[in-house]
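Support request from a user on the community tier.

User writes: "When I paste my structure tokens into the form, the page sometimes reloads and wipes my input. The last time it worked, I copied everything first. Here is what I submitted, just in case something in the input itself triggers the reload:"
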């Protein structure tokens, strides 16, 4: 039997409870205590009715937060919460199931060495990260002082995080434990139907992009990204990109859905992007192939969607169309590449970053300079000129002056005089993590055929489709891209843990930021097929 730690969370809606239980109106403090006692009675009744109550090792509750340790199977745990959600029509329990550790209030409870010896959990203090904040509805049973404290705390958090430089994307922060479970899918199917952003998603062939917007004092929202900005990504944001297409011999719509993580995207944003990608997949009846893309490490498929990819520094609110021209922040763009593709990236406005072999654009808002290094190639110059023309078209009819400067011809002093950004003003000095692993392809198998999940190396070197087995999950690492292949006859446990094992595997490699694609047997894409024969 599995030992599972379950963390439960319930939400009381005071207005409905008040109608049914005649909660006194004289004191909000009294209402809190009455609701607390009522919830205690409800939970006791649920446990009494639960047929596997002997498998509950321990349970604790504080207000609407609960912690439960169970020596039970996942099916038995699901039965408990199905029973709980039938107990009261105005009371809804939501929960997370953890195999090894769980957070309850200010403690992190986990299976340490003592658990393996005497089945006793260890615990340590836990402090919520300042990047995140959770809210209570005004109708919930809490005193007014609680909400006043929330406002003060959130303002303080915004001040603190505003003074802290954005950190680069840390793949170790990602939490994929919610992926794949039945309850998670059921919740997303219901939630996806309520997400307004998906109403027009995937109706016809083409590209659609949404940005994850974080409102400091409110919530995170999915918003449509303007078509004129397709291909431009701010490194402080996360995005969802949906490609809808048809095969030549069919009218059926097919999909690839990518979540793109900016270098300085917050944990709130990229976690929401990952979650919403799965939600969109569910909305489209699990038809899309899911992909993870990290800035600077995009897959070949992702790059084919755009004529060029441009990395803008900061967040979308700092764009030209959203500020007055006189307030526009100057930007320096670096163009580097060849006939196979030119990458455009915003860099610090500092002379030390100028290379004589590339092209640069200095965007001052109403005056744009193009600087052609003496060693730059034709593709870089043409792409830069196209970019200048697109910038002029975006300026909403404003008079924009452009100047093209060639290093060989001289007269470039005016360009360098504007490269006055101070060291470390906005950009991190840390370089992007590049994949230097050139070893052979590796194929791993995830299987529970022996009674428990086992992750093992299946093969090194050339991999063919015959090496995959529809009864299990396989993780195929080409060192440039990682594929999670899910067989049609996999078990629920294998399917649920596929992305978790892939994520944890990448964390221990020298190439944790490479693209990740999740494929079902029979729905393999071109990138996967090419990797098999590469």
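"...and here is what came back when it finally went through:"
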């Amino acid at each position: 039997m599995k030992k599972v730690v379950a963390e439960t969370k319930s939400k009381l809606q005071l207005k409905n409870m008040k109608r049914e239980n005649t909660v006194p109106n004289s004191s909000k403090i009294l209402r809190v205590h009455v609701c607390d006692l009522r919830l205690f009675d409800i939970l006791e009744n649920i446990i009494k009715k639960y047929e596997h109550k002997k498998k509950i090792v321990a349970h604790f509750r504080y207000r609407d937060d609960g912690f439960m340790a169970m020596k039970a199977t996942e099916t038995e745990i699901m039965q408990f919460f199905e029973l709980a959600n039938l107990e009261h029509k105005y009371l809804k329990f939501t929960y997370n199931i953890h195999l090894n550790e769980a957070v309850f209030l200010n403690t992190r409870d986990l299976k340490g060495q003592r658990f393996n010896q005497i089945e006793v959990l260890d615990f340590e203090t836990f402090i919520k990260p300042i990047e995140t904040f959770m809210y209570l509805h005004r109708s919930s049973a809490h005193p007014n002082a609680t909400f006043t404290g929330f406002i003060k705390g959130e303002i303080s958090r915004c001040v603190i995080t505003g003074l802290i430089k954005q950190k680069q994307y840390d793949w170790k922060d990602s939490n994929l434990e919610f992926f794949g479970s039945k309850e998670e899918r059921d919740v997303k199917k219901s939630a996806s139907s309520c997400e307004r952003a998906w109403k027009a998603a995937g109706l016809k062939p083409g590209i659609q992009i949404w940005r994850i917007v974080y409102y400091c004092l409110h919530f995170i929202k999915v918003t449509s990204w303007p078509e004129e900005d397709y291909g431009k990504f701010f490194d402080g944001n996360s995005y969802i990109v949906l490609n809808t297409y048809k095969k030549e011999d069919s009218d059926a719509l097919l999909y690839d859905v990518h979540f793109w993580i900016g270098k300085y995207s917050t944990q709130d944003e990229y976690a929401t992007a990952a979650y919403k990608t799965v939600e969109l997949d569910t909305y489209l009846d699990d038809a899309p192939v899911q992909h993870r893309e990290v800035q600077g490490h995009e897959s070949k498929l992702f790059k084919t969607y755009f004529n060029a990819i441009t990395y803008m520094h900061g967040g979308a609110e700092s764009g030209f169309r959203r500020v007055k021209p006189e307030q526009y922040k100057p930007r320096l763009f670096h163009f580097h590449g060849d006939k196979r593709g030119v990458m455009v990236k915003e860099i610090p406005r500092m002379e030390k970053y100028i290379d004589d072999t590339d092209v640069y654009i200095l965007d001052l808002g109403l005056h744009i300079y193009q600087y052609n290094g003496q060693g730059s190639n034709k593709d870089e110059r043409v792409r830069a000129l196209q970019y200048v023309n697109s910038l002029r078209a975006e300026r909403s009819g404003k008079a924009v002056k452009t100047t093209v400067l060639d290093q060989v011809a001289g007269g470039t002093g005016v360009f360098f005089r504007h490269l006055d950004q101070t060291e470390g003003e906005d950009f991190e000095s840390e370089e992007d993590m590049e994949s230097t692993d050139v070893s052979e392809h590796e194929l791993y198998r995830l299987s529970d055929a022996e009674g428990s999940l086992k992750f093992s190396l299946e093969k090194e070197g050339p991999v063919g489709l015959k090496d995959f087995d529809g009864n299990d999950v396989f993780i195929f690492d080409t060192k440039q891209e990682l594929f999670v292949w899910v067989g049609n006859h996999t078990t629920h446990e294998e399917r649920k843990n596929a992305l978790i094992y892939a994520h944890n595997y990448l964390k221990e490699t020298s190439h944790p930021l490479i693209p990740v694609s999740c494929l079902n047997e029979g729905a393999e894409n071109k990138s996967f097929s090419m990797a098999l024969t590469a």
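Agent notes: The reload is a front-end session timeout and is unrelated to the input. The chain has four domains: 4-163, 169-294+309-314, 318-417, 433-534. The first helix runs from residue 14 to 21. Escalated to web team.
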